Amino acid sequence: MTSLAALKSVAASVSERDMANAIRALAMDSVQKANSGHPGMPMGMADVATVLFSRFINIDPTAPDWPDRDRFVLSAGHGSMLQYALHYLLGYEDMPIEELQRFRQLGSRTAGHPEHGHALGIETTTGPLGQGISTAVGMALAERMLAARHGADLVDHYTYAIAGDGCLQEGISHEAIDLAGHLKLSRLIVLWDDNAISIDGPTSLSTSMDQPARFKAAGWLVQLVDGHDMEAVAAAIEAARQADRPSLIACRTVIGKGAPNLGGSEKTHGAPLGNAEIAATRQNIGWAYAPFKVPDDILSAWREIAGRGQAARRAWEQRLAASPQRKAFERAIGGKLPDAVFEALGAFRKEHVEKATKVATRKASEMALAAINGATELTVGGSADLTHSNLTITKDMDRIVPGDYAGRYVHYGIREHGMAAAMNGIALHGGFIPYGGTFLCFADYARGAMRLSALMSQRVVYVMTHDSIGLGEDGPTHQPIEHLAMLRATPNLNVFRPADIIETAECWELALKSERRPSVLVLSRQNLPMLRQAHSDENRSSRGAYVLREPSAHRAVTLIATGSEVEIAVAAAERLEREHGIAAAVVSMPSWELFEEQDADYRKSVLGSAPRVAVEAAARLGWDRWIGDTGAFVGMTGFGASAPAPDLYKHFDITPEAVATAAMKLII
Ligand SMILES: Cc1ncc(C[n+]2csc(CCOP(=O)(O)OP(=O)(O)O)c2C)c(N)n1
Ligand SMILES: [Mg+2]
Fold first, then answer.
1. If you measure from the C-alpha of residue 163 to the centroid of ligand 2, how many angstroms do you get, rounded to a whole number?
2. Smaller CB count within 10 Å for the chain: N or C?
């Protein structure tokens, strides 16, 4: 063990046990004061976390975003007090003791679960179990990809995640560990809080899973240790760091360790221990200090750890300064797209207005991506096993394969949720802009992680094709109905449903420029005509909606549509004018969110004061906002069916005739 002893940087007078007890005390005191929270997990994992931080992790609280830092993910996010205690002890400037005293209160940095962006050093938002470990997979992948591009001198770090029984029970963990094992993400180390307790009681109530066997089957190195034996934990982490594949360290722990009466019980999972048990715990662990008081020698032992990270950071900065890779590395980490991308998209739009290119918007997306990927290396594509349906791969995109991360296309496998979480991890890690495809209907499967993309303001682009009954024969299992409403209801998410090749390129541009917001590109399987009259330098989709077709006379009706139904609205408008002399304007509305952000005058000029008919081959929910009390909606009222797309549009009465009839009913 001499090498491990050499790694120790703590003052000899303070034991790691004392350092761990500081976490225990802070966790139980904060939860008690808040009268809410989860003391059991931080107390149970205090020893593991202490070893991890005191001997291994390289982070610098004075430079929390230093690119080559190790990443720490608290996947068992309910144990947030573990993270906050660590941050206080390590000396993050935004985590003074007062923040721990305001645990879970409005406006504090110590939110119920760790939230990225809420306090320094929180690498990802956790709490929805399973997300952290799956996001960590993306981080570990991004690390390898960045290292392949810029070398080990600049990129050489680990991703450590603490996961509980809950994280491992969640289905997403299966997707994530399979992907990580397959890709041999050797810099990923998961520490499992193997306490065999969850909320309802012992995990034996609901699982007989042999977790070590499961991880082994997915290609992981698995080690089993007593999570309170610090030397054993350290040896396991050291071995994991040397492994050629991802590692699971099953740390057998006692939940609420230290609490003499409640330790080992689910009662410590999510409730304060109570004053009597806290006093007994202080006695039991020999912690004679007042609530929220950490003695100076123990605090300085913790602060020394930060010193080690700071030294590592400084050495890295010198390597960066001297590196021929410096500019390229800084460009990647900065995430700023070159102007060439937007120039290429501008030229693309001009070309295809002139050619009046008629393609499915999924195809248009592929064509736009060819222009984008040709002009930047930042984008990393992928699909959940639907590459040739989503059309997400472009020429010269090499694949990422196990052990070789120089490529820029990820075969995520049939793992929509895992893909979305991994993309969050890639975006959070920095250096890349991830996009990934699946069918829109399976947004449901990816939903948990998509919600976190939005909550964390990450630039993740979801390419979701086969966006309506227009996909045809695959039938109602594959035909999204309620999905647009669900996505549009999600705060801070761009939902783009472009109508043609031009809007598709515009929406791609908007998605890439949305540095603080994820986007969903909702794309058709079927071909759609180019609808623009003329090229404009202006990105017309940027205002969310615009008048695509002005009527020849004063507007009698406004037809509003998105995506594949804009073509139908245009045909309806022509019919209304030709056959009935009714002047109909057509509004294309590729993005509700961006339209909502426009000023009232612009919105009024687009929507007009005439009666409105909306047409979208999806659920009505939400459309009343745009059509008002007196408007009409042409769309779906139930699930779709299996048939060729043109038959389905007729069957469900989403046709120019139906739209024209609805309009006439409003007018007459
Ligand atoms: C997706 C999801 N489902 C349910 C919950 C509610 N929940 C929070 S913690 C927990 C039990 C977790 O058990 P474990 O990971 O073993 O934590 P421990 O009790 O050991 O601290 C549950 C069900 C959640 N946070 N996320
Ligand atoms: Mg547990």
1. 9
2. C
